[in-house]
Amino acid sequence: DGGPDPCCQFSAVTGERPFGCIVCSKSFFNKYDLQKHMRVHTGETPYGCSHCGRHFKLKSTLNVHIQSHLGIKRYSCGVCGKACSRQEHLNVHMRTHNGERPYRCSFCDKAFTQSHCLKTHMKSFHPEKQAS
């Protein structure tokens, strides 16, 4: 009938994860989740964007990506109204309002809203302290 496998439903209830990855030993409630996980190891990206040709491991990631081509921005800032296509982008934007700067330089008193800003700072102001 195509419905959920009763065996898998039972596993989820009991907490048993009988489907194990042979590469990293992570385990899953059902075979489908294990198959999706295996793409981490194989690099398989079966879902392609018809707009730009970019490929993704998960269909849900492709769907979010397609929204960027269509200009769909479902998340908006309650302070200034800025709209974002992804919740993560709105979270980063909110730091401009709340002053949060979670990425701190360990060599001076500078702090940044995004990790790439800290990396740029390190290359510019502390290049000799970069890990090689």
TrEMBL record:
<dbReference type="GO" id="GO:0000978">
    <property type="term" value="F:RNA polymerase II cis-regulatory region sequence-specific DNA binding"/>
</dbReference>
<keyword id="KW-0479">Metal-binding</keyword>
<dbReference type="GO" id="GO:0008270">
    <property type="term" value="F:zinc ion binding"/>
</dbReference>
<dbReference type="InterPro" id="IPR013087">
    <property type="entry name" value="Znf_C2H2_type"/>
</dbReference>
<keyword id="KW-0862">Zinc</keyword>
<dbReference type="Pfam" id="PF00096">
    <property type="entry name" value="zf-C2H2"/>
</dbReference>
<keyword id="KW-0677">Repeat</keyword>
<feature type="domain" description="C2H2-type">
    <location>
        <begin position="19"/>
        <end position="46"/>
    </location>
</feature>
<dbReference type="GO" id="GO:0045893">
    <property type="term" value="P:positive regulation of DNA-templated transcription"/>
</dbReference>
<protein>
    <recommendedName>
        <fullName>C2H2-type domain-containing protein</fullName>
    </recommendedName>
</protein>
<feature type="domain" description="C2H2-type">
    <location>
        <begin position="47"/>
        <end position="74"/>
    </location>
</feature>
<keyword id="KW-0539">Nucleus</keyword>
<dbReference type="GO" id="GO:0005634">
    <property type="term" value="C:nucleus"/>
</dbReference>
<keyword id="KW-0863">Zinc-finger</keyword>
<dbReference type="InterPro" id="IPR036236">
    <property type="entry name" value="Znf_C2H2_sf"/>
</dbReference>
<dbReference type="Pfam" id="PF13894">
    <property type="entry name" value="zf-C2H2_4"/>
</dbReference>
<dbReference type="GO" id="GO:0000981">
    <property type="term" value="F:DNA-binding transcription factor activity, RNA polymerase II-specific"/>
</dbReference>
<feature type="domain" description="C2H2-type">
    <location>
        <begin position="75"/>
        <end position="102"/>
    </location>
</feature>
<feature type="domain" description="C2H2-type">
    <location>
        <begin position="103"/>
        <end position="131"/>
    </location>
</feature>
<dbReference type="GO" id="GO:0005694">
    <property type="term" value="C:chromosome"/>
</dbReference>
